[in-house]
């Protein structure tokens, strides 16, 4: 499992600079995922090359949120299947520890006007 925590660039805008995310290899995958969901206001679990994850990251960056992105691989995905299924599979978005779902869940929140207030509520947006 690999992870990246994205932060806004000092110059501003929607671009992000990536910083490595330390993941304890001694934890079971499901325990590790639960911890990451608990410790980060916005988390996306994805697979390498997932185009829907890219769309989700761009939408979140557009509103000012920069999620922690975790790339899961075969055995880890199987070990944490129940957790990922709660969010509708991969890509899986969690906001404030609660499963939102995939791109459909994110778009539903955004189009209903509930995304930005929810992100503010969990501390993922400033202001």
Automatic annotation (TrEMBL):
Major location (coarse): cytoplasm
A Pfam family reported for this protein in Swiss-Prot or TrEMBL: Glutaredoxin
Claim: Transmembrane is one of the keywords in the record: no
Location of the Glutaredoxin domain: 42-97
Domain of life: Eukaryota
An annotated GO cellular component: cytoplasm
Keywords of this entry: Cytoplasm, Redox-active center
Subcellular location: Cytoplasm
Family under the similarity heading: Belongs to the glutaredoxin family. CC-type subfamily.
Name the record gives this protein: Glutaredoxin-C7
Native organism: Ananas comosus
Gene that produces this protein: LOC109715982
């Amino acid at each position: 499992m690999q992870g990246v925590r994205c932060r806004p660039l000092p110059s501003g805008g929607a671009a992000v600079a990536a910083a490595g995310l330390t993941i304890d290899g001694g934890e079971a995958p499901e325990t590790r995922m639960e911890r990451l969901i608990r410790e980060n206001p916005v988390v996306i679990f994805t697979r390498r090359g997932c185009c829907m994850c890219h769309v989700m990251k761009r939408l979140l960056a557009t509103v000012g949120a920069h999620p922690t992105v975790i790339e899961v691989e075969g055995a880890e995905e199987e070990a944490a299947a129940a957790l990922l299924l709660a969010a509708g599979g991969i890509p899986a978005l969690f906001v404030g520890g609660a499963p939102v779902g995939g791109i459909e869940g994110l778009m539903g929140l955004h189009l209903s006007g509930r995304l930005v207030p929810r992100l503010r509520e969990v501390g993922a947006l400033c202001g």
